[in-house]
Write a structure and sequence with these properties.
This protein has a domain of 109 residues. The longest helix has 45 residues. It is built from eleven helices and no strands. By secondary structure, it is mainly alpha-helical.
């Protein structure tokens, strides 16, 4: 347990995303009894030692404690109580949406200063490589400025989306281990989420609150993507089970094609109104009655 817990903490320092996945993959067996207290005691002690040694700052400590430790504890607590994977994912999503907002209010200036320093170092390094090529130098400068703008304005959404996607992947892995399987192809988000989407759309349309609206929509996008993927699983799941190659192609396409990702998320959004799976079931019933 000591090794797994310590490694989980160290991996979380480099990436909370991979820290979560590592805990679910290798530390899941310690989450069901009193061993979890020792597991997280070792985990937190490792983080405190790194913080006291000035290896990590207060922002990263906060990210790990909320995004990894609290999110994992909350997830397993809810899952073991009701065995409702979607409810556990949504609960973790809400906590990290709130934390992402609070993180911006508390550490926003410090975070932006840190990221600006990192981007400046990258800019100097890349400029030293391509200094003889003006076209490449201009391209690198524009790319760095674009990345700096995205990170500085949308990091609350980036944080939330990262944690939601990590918890989603963890849920898929966990479902294969546990006796209670996740009926992934029947996932449906609560309709109340639509009202939240409408609020963020209104904020997006107002020029004074456009950044807030975009952050809010991007925070909800992973949940819509999960529902969109469940629709694909409902209609094409049997084909993917027969051909792993097609499944891998789809995963790579989603990862590297943002337009396809947005299309699947939009499918998840419209499904909240039209319930595509219910329409399909009705058609099958009508065909059977006709026969």
């Amino acid at each position: 347990m000591f090794l797994i817990s310590s490694l989980s903490a160290l991996i979380s320092v480099f990436s909370p995303f991979w820290g979560l996945i590592f805990i679910f993959a290798f530390g899941e067996k310690y989450q069901y009894n009193r061993e979890k207290y020792n597991f997280y005691l070792i985990f937190i002690a490792t983080i405190i030692i790194l913080a006291l040694g000035n290896f990590i700052d207060i922002i990263l400590v906060s990210d790990i404690l909320i995004g990894v430790v609290f999110s994992t504890i909350l997830y397993f607590r809810l899952l073991l109580r009701e065995y409702n994977y979607l409810k556990a994912i949504i609960s973790v999503a809400i906590i990290n949406m709130l934390y992402g907002t609070l993180r911006h209010l508390m550490f926003g200036k410090m975070f932006i200063a840190n990221m600006t320093a990192i981007f400046d170092q990258y800019t100097e390094f890349l400029e030293s490589i391509v200094m003889e090529n003006n076209d490449k130098l201009l391209f690198v400068s524009d790319l760095i400025e674009t990345l700096k703008y995205i990170v500085s304005h949308f990091y609350p959404a980036i944080w939330t989306a990262t944690i939601i996607l990590a918890i989603y992947i963890c849920s898929l892995l966990l479902s294969k281990k546990l006796k209670t399987k996740w009926s992934h192809k029947t996932v449906r988000l609560p309709f109340t989420l639509v009202y939240l989407i409408i609020v963020f759309l209104v904020l997006f349309l107002l020029s004074s609150s456009r950044i807030i609206g975009i952050n809010g929509l991007l925070m909800l996008a992973p949940l819509l993507l999960i529902q969109g993927i469940s629709i694909l699983d409902f209609f094409l799941g049997n084909y993917f089970k027969k051909s792993k190659f097609l499944l891998y192609i789809l995963v790579l396409a989603v990862l590297f094609n943002p337009y396809l990702t947005m299309l699947i998320a939009a499918m998840g959004l419209f499904d909240m109104w039209f319930n595509f799976r219910k329409i399909s079931i009705r058609e099958e019933v009508n065909e059977n009655n006709f026969n």
